[in-house]
Structure formats: C-alpha cells, structure tokens
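Onboarding guide, step 5: your first structure request.
Type a short instruction followed by the sequence, for example:

Predict the 3D structure of this protein.
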Amino acid sequence: MSNNSALLDFVIRLGDNNLILGHRLSEWCSHGPFLEEDIATANIALDHVGAARLLLTYAGEIEGGKSEDDYAYLRDHVEFKCALLVQQPNGDFGDTQARQLYYSSFAYILYTELKNSKNEQLAAFATKAIKETIYHLRHCSEWVIRLGDGTDESKQRMQKALDNLWTYTGDLFATTAGDAQLVKDGIIPDVASLQSKWYDMVKEVVTRATLTMPDASAFMQSGSREGKHTEHLSYLVGEMQSVTRAFPGAKW
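The system replies with structure tokens like these:
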C-alpha cells in the first residue's frame, strides 16, 4: 500500500467512525430522557457529523474527484471502514453512554497524539476536534457515574451495557500494514500502543461509578479493517442513504 493509499484509508476510517456514531446519536432526537438531554445528545451527534464532513472532504482531496457526499451516500455498507463499536444500536440510555465512554476516551487519546502529526490537515483537525471531545467525554462520564452509582436497576443496566459492548472495543485499536508506514513517517500515532492509556481512562470512570471493569482478557470481535461488519451497519446505512437512493443526483 502506498503512503497516499494508507493516508486515505486512515482518514476514511476516522471519518466513518464519526459519521456512523453521529447518525446513531441522532436517533435519540426527540427520544431523550428529558428535554435538556435531548438537546445535548443532538449537539454531540452534530459534532460527530461535523468531524466526519471535515475528514471525508479531506479524503476526497486525497483521492481526487470525490466529495463528502460520495463517501456518505454512494458506498455500499461493506465499503465503510468504521469500527464495530460505533455500529452498535443505541439500546437504552445506559447502552448509549457506555458506547460513548468507550469511543470518546479513544478519540481523546488519539486526537491528543494526532495534534503532533506532520500532516497539517490532520493536526489541524485534531486540534479542533479534541475541544469537542473533551465535552463529549465529560458528558458521558457523568452519566455513567450517575447511573452506576444510582438505583439498583440503573446500576445493573449500566454494568450490563459496559459488559456487552466490551467485546467491540479491541477493534478500535486494530491497525493495518499501511498504518505502520504512517507511524514511521510521523503522520499518525501508533494506535495499538494507546490501548493501555485508554484502559486506564475508562477504568477511572468505571471505578467512580462503583462498577466493575469487564475482563480485559475477554474475546474481542474484529474485522472492520477488512470490511467485515455487524449486521447493524447495513440497516443504518440503508436508512441514511434512503433519500439519495430514491432521488439519485438530486440537489437540495
């Protein structure tokens, strides 16, 4: 894989993570537990979609002749490169906050390192995105603590959410042969090496929530780097692309 192809692959992966997670969170719009939280979740969804737009626009510049819409609306679900975690259904509010804790912790650590990239576009993106990610991380951490240290039922549900989603977290740190060259060139950090920092960050929140960390040696699902996704992604992409597919080439 050439450096240009490796860079494109990394940018699309990160863009797809934000696009799919943003779409998932948007599904909470008008369904939040109360009005303020409904607005907060919608705003976080918009932050992720905004990040996806920046990244997929940059991907189009790298590849040439493509726009952000081409990546979002004109690919089949098997062509997406998003991590398995962000594809998972919202479930109840505890499931959504567990998913967000796992992803926001990952994003915070990744963007902290990516700010030092020799690639100006990636460094600028990370510098901007980390400000929003700090808010996302604070928000979901407060909810995990609130639910974990709340009633017996909320505690049980929050623990179950953390346990059920844990199997998808290892996929966040999967790398490709192209990544190794990008690391060597100072373009991206060694994502696999960030896992221990991520674990410690998540554990701090889980401990404060009086919950138990899932078994670190548990089986981890994988495959997103090879286009092997969960069944949930095909339904999500089908819904997201429904208008474009029904009215191809339409301008709004």
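Each response can be followed by summary notes, for example: The chain has a mean pLDDT of 95.
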